[in-house]
Design a protein that fits this description.
The complex is a heterodimer.
Chain A (H helix, E strand, L loop, with lengths): L2 H13 L2 E2 L2 H7 L7 H32 L13 H34 L4 H39 L9 H43 L1 H7 L1
Helix pairs in contact in A: 3-4, 4-5, 5-6
Chain B lengths: L5 H12 L1 H11 L3 H18 L9 H15 L18 E2 L7 H15 L3 H11 L4 H8 L3 H20 L1
The chains are: A mainly alpha, B mainly alpha.
Chain lengths: 218, 166
């Protein structure tokens, strides 16, 4: 089939198109988008609200534990006042870092979804936004889990004893690195499993539109 | 009384008048009716969400091609059965009576079979070509040079000939 034949066939297809009425269009446009990027955006939005609220509470508790050093001790069963400040402070700091990366990934996705450009340029931005969101998921796991689990371990093991350079002390020092590395590789694998094929396909489309890589192949 | 905003009314009128573009894209990118309806829904949502970015410095149809083709290329159909959100209970109304004969049906079938072998970006290029877009317009919508459009068209031509000769 030559292109001219294809064009004549296309004219027949034109007459057999099906149409929907205006009422249906007006109802359809308010539905939730189901694309991959829109789903990632919704997940980031949820994490932003959840993480933002947690960051706000932790920041407030950090300041309260500093301002009312001896009076504000919500965790006095496990922590000294200084440990309470460090506990809330470290959580607040890591959550605020996460919120910043979350916001950046969200903004990138928002631009891709609302400001369309040429196919090549949109593909490039789409891939970049997805990679940002994936990086956010990996790093948030690698940062948050070790901080939280290490504090839990500290509260449980060092509840009735002082820190010492024994096995428990060494475990405390190694735990954040072990949990961080495990979380990082697990999350990287999970994200690859979830989005790897999709992202690779989009990248191959983008490469196909890149004249430089095409000339190199030829 | 209609409770649509003027912006929404304008959008619906524009999309309704050019909706043939969306249907052709859906037909080209989807294998079955269910997928076609899902993609149609997704394109309509995306067009509406991006409508504020349409400034009128290009033709509405060109803008619509860009948005709809972007959605079709990014669309990733999972094997699991998708839930039909809206169109399940609606019937599509035919724009014109279907006068196609069996010979025409065969011709259409051959055309879709040939196009089905192309990748998603090549489908976008051939669609624009079949719709009568100039190389300049194709280059602008796809985001490549006119020279590269010609290179791509040659490759598409070769692929289609190969498919037919098989």
């Amino acid at each position: 089939m030559e292109l001219a034949e294809l064009k004549s066939s296309w004219k027949i297809a034109d007459a057999t198109s099906q149409f929907v009425d205006e009422t249906l269009i007006s109802r359809a446009i308010y539905k939730k988008p189901a694309g991959e990027l829109a789903k990632i955006k919704r997940s980031l939005h949820f994490k932003f609200i959840f993480g933002g609220s947690a960051a706000l509470i932790c920041t407030l508790f950090t300041f309260l534990s500093i301002a009312y050093h001896q009076k504000f001790t919500p965790l006095d069963a496990h922590f000294t006042p200084l440990e309470t400040t460090l506990f809330y402070g470290s959580l607040a700091l890591s959550l605020l870092i996460m919120i910043w990366f979350n916001y950046r990934a969200y903004r990138q996705i928002q631009i891709v979804l609302t400001q369309p450009d040429s196919i090549k340029s949109t593909l490039k931005r789409f891939i970049k936004s997805m990679e940002s969101a994936i990086r956010f998921n990996i790093y948030s796991e690698a940062l948050m889990s070790p901080i939280f689990i290490t504090w839990l371990y500290y509260a449980y093991v060092f509840d009735n004893r002082a820190f010492d350079w024994d096995v428990f002390g060494l475990v405390l020092l190694l735990l954040p690195f072990v949990i961080g590395a495990t979380g990082y590789y697990f999350q990287r694998y999970a994200q690859k499993l979830k989005f790897g094929n999709y992202l690779n396909r989009l990248k191959s489309y983008y490469e196909g539109l890149d004249e430089k890589s095409f000339s190199e192949k030829v | 009384m209609s409770n649509k905003t003027p912006n929404e009314e304008e959008f619906i009128k524009l999309v309704s008048a050019s909706q043939g573009i969306i249907h052709k894209i859906c037909r080209l990118y989807c294998d079955d009716e269910e997928h076609r309806k899902d993609l149609l829904q997704e394109i309509l949502v995306q067009l509406w969400n991006s409508f504020s970015s349409f400034r009128g410095d290009s033709k509405f149809s060109s803008w619509m091609y860009s948005v709809a083709l972007n959605v079709a290329i990014q669309d990733f159909r999972k094997e699991k059965k998708r839930k039909l959100i809206l169109f399940e209970s609606y019937e599509f109304k035919a724009s014109e009576p279907d006068h196609s004969t069996s010979a025409e049906n065969e011709q259409l079938k051959a055309m879709y079979q040939a196009i089905a072998k192309l990748d998603k970006v090549e489908k976008a290029i051939i669609l624009l070509y079949l719709e009568g877009s100039s190389n300049e317009e194709i280059a602008e919508i796809i985001g490549i040079t006119q020279n590269y459009v010609r290179v791509k068209m040659n490759r598409i031509k070769q692929k289609i000939s190969k498919t037919v000769n098989q």
